[in-house]
Amino acid sequence: MLVSVQNIRKSFAVGDSWFKKSRHEVLKGVSFELFEGECLGLLGESGSGKSTLGKVILGIENPDSGEVVFADAISDLPSHEKMSVVFQDYTSSVNPRLRVEEIISEPLLRTQLTHAEKKQKVNELLVEVGLSESMKTRFPHQLSGGQLQRVCIARAIAPSPKFILLDEAVSSLDVSVQAQVLDLLANLKQRFGLSYLFITHDITVAAYLCNRILIFQDGKVVEQVDDLNNLAHATNNYAKQLLSAAHFLERAFTEPAA
Amino acid sequence: MMKKLLANRVASICLLILSAFTLAGIFAPVIAPHDPNLSDFTKFFAPISWEYPLGADHLGRCILSRLLFGIRTTLFYAFLTMLITLSVGTVIGIISGYIGGKLDNVIMRTCDMLLAFPSEVMVLSLIGVLGPGITSIIIANFIAKLPWYVRMIRSSVIRFNHQNYVLYSNTIETRFHYKLFRHFFPNIASEIAILASMDIGWIILSISTLSFLGLGVELPTPEWGSMLSEAKDVLLTNPEQMMYPGVTIMIVVATCNLLGDSVRELFDPKAQA
Ligand SMILES: Nc1ncnc2c1ncn2[C@@H]1O[C@H](COP(=O)(O)OP(=O)(O)OP(=O)(O)O)[C@@H](O)[C@H]1O
Ligand SMILES: [Mg+2]
Predict the structure, then answer these.
(1) Which residues in chain A are closer than 8 Å to B174, comparing Cβ atoms?
(2) Best of A10, A50, A222 to mutate for ligand 1, by most ligand atoms within 8 A of CB?
(3) pLDDT tens-digit readout, B101-142
């Protein structure tokens, strides 16, 4: 076990009214475990609370109750070596006024590397994610969405964290770039023994990259699929819906129109 | 940022005028033809001449020299007020937005209270309490303007705290000063520039108005507002006396406002397509 999420609850106050204070519960007791070296998919519809759960795990949002426990091996590491994140919205994930080089070296600031070593590392990382070294002097607006998302991935892997949260990391990319980025992620995971928590609402993407999938609905984990071959036999209603939607799309594309 | 300003014609002309005034103020002792407070009884209302390029006033003092030395009071005290307000406002705004909670509430309610009075009324009543003088003017303008700056900086901090790149920095616990100097300041610099350039004209007017009313600098320190006030007494016999300080104030304030407008146009994120 690398990360253990234990019965997390989280609610937000809705409405600023003085008289009527009501709370909207977004996470209703979420528990699961993430093992070392695996990619765990968190699949759920929009608004089900996936991103909120991600923020709780990263420690930038406090849960109302429950806790996130990291394995002893990593719990004492400084946070930049422990975990990292790639957000869905790549345009606001990077400071528009910094160059690519500075963006990627932000997590290296707290390492012992010398200035030259950092530069070297940034060059390596850029090549690693399939960009050219010449891009390091560019500003974010001079990159395409796919390139920018790779910069975010490069930044995420720069300090060699044990665990990376990928919050819809490929959802806003077009299908061909999506496939490239997914391959890149699979490759990096193999080589560096990373663990991913992969948040998505796209079942095909989840099936492509993940070892296990949690199906998340309305603030709860409603089903856990350990063997992806059994995905088709999911019992939960929502999971079935997702699957049939995926099959429908697949059929529409693979069967020639009569 | 500077490059963009200089590429804009209106903005660069305004900057040129303002820097000319600033330089003239700095080098006033060198370029002024006379001591601004030296009165020559033979030169009452002297007409324009080589010796007195803009003539002399009712005490026979050189008007040009007084205007030049007036830059030092009016313009420089306005800059000073701006600088103090801006830096204190930034610090309080950052504290309020960053720490949040109860402290934020207290600061914001105080600002609301201060903002409930019109600025002019606020300045006048503060000077009533503090007594006339340039220090009171600076303090009064500072207190009247501070809440605006605190609010603006605070709202930028809060907006900024929800940006994904800040969430990323929080996740990996990047040091605070990096967030402040690499992420935050570069992104609010333009907002500060807009606010500052819009307000500087207001402060110049405020200093001049108060001196005109006799609440500002002590006589005979040269100051545009008090020059206007002195000229007012001889309005019927020598109306041109009011023109020089009046036109000077108008040029400087109009330049500041124009600069403020073009800065806003240039750096408004919405216009930055
Ligand atoms: N700071 C907040 N204040 C109030 N409500 C919030 C806040 N953040 C999220 N919510 C609410 O929590 C719910 C879950 O939001 P969340 O962003 O976690 O959804 P999601 O599963 O990530 O959706 P998507 O797939 O569209 O990204 C939504 O109904 C949202 O309105
Ligand atoms: Mg989300």
Answers:
(1) 80, 106-107, 109-110
(2) A50
(3) 899 999 999 999 988 988 888 899 999 999 888 899 999 999
Ligand at shortest distance from the CA of A45: 1
Does residue B1 lie within any of the structural domains?
A: no
Same domain, yes or no, for A185 and A255? yes
Long-range contacts, stretch B181-185, CB < 8 angstroms, 24+ apart:
B182/A95, B182/A98, B182/A102, B183/A95, B183/A98, B184/B94, B184/B157, B184/B160
B46 within domain boundaries: no
The CATH number for B116's domain is 1.10.3720.10
Q: Is residue B246 part of a domain?
A: yes
In a domain, B36, yes or no: no
Distances (CA, A) of A99 to A138, A143, B87: 5, 11, 28
- Token pair 């492509």 is found at A208
Give domain status of residue A173, yes or no: yes
Sheet holding A212-217, edge to edge: A83-86, A163-167, A195-200, A39-44, A212-217, A220-225
Give the ipTM: 0.85
